[in-house]
Amino acid sequence: QLSLPPTLYLGGLPRKYVAAQLHLHWGQKGLPGGSEHQINSEATAAELHIVHYDSDSFGSLSEAAQKPQGLAVLGILIEMGETENPAYEHILSHLHEIRHKDQKTSVPPFRLGELLPPQLEQFFRYNGSLTTPPCYQSVLWTVFHRRAQISVEQLERLQETLFSTEEESSEPLVQNYRAPQPLNQRTVFASFTQVESLYTTGEMVGLGVGILVGCLCLLLAVYFIAQKIR
Description:
Strands 1, 2, 3, 4, 5, 6, 7, 8 and 9 form a nine-stranded mixed sheet that branches. The protein folds into two domains: 2-190, Carbonic Anhydrase II (Roll), CATH 3.10.200; 197-230. 21% of the residues lie in helices and 23% in strands. The radius of gyration is 24 Å and the shape is globular. The protein is of the alpha+beta class. The longest helix is centred in the last third of the chain and has 29 residues, at 201-229. Strand 2 and strand 3 form a beta hairpin. Its cofactor is Zn(2+).
C-alpha cells in the first residue's frame, strides 16, 4: 500500500474524509478476474482502492475502520489497454524496490487525480465492508462506472513482481482479491441513468449494414431514373 498525505480529502460528503492510503488488487496471469467489484457481472484485471477516513469524528484510520461509514473508499476498475498509462507508472515503476514482505520505499509526489477514470460524475455508491479481515461493515463505497487502463506489460509487472514472504519464492503474490459477496439487501445507488440498448451488438451491426445497402440501392435507382429521363 502507498500512504497518502492527510491534506487530500473527499468533497461532496456529509463529513470530511481525509486520504490515508491506496492499494491495488489483481488476479493471475492467464486467468480471468482480479477486481473486487463487478459491473453487470463483469470483472476486470485489477482494481485500485483509495482509502479515506472520517476525520471529523475519528482520530485515526484504525479507529474509523471499526465504525459505520467511518471509511470512504474510491474503487477504480482497471482493464488492459493498448498503451502504457504514465499515471500508474508512478507506482508500478517502484514495485521492484518492495518485492518482499516488510520492505519500504519512497514514491515522488504525483497528481493522484491522474489515476482516476474519465467521467467521474458516473459512479455507484453503497454502504459495505472492508474486503480484508476483519471485514468491518464500515465503508461508504464509491465505485466509478468508467474504467482506467494500463498496458499488458504493466499488468504483468503487477502480477509477477511482488512476493508475500521475506524471501523470494517460486510463487509471486497473485489473486489478492476477495470474491464478490451477496448484496444482503443492500441498496446500490447510481449517479446516472444507463439506457439499455434494445438490440444486441450483432443486431446493431446487421441493422447498420441493412441501412447502408438500402441507401446504396436508393441511390442507384435515382441514378437510373435520371439516365432514362435524359
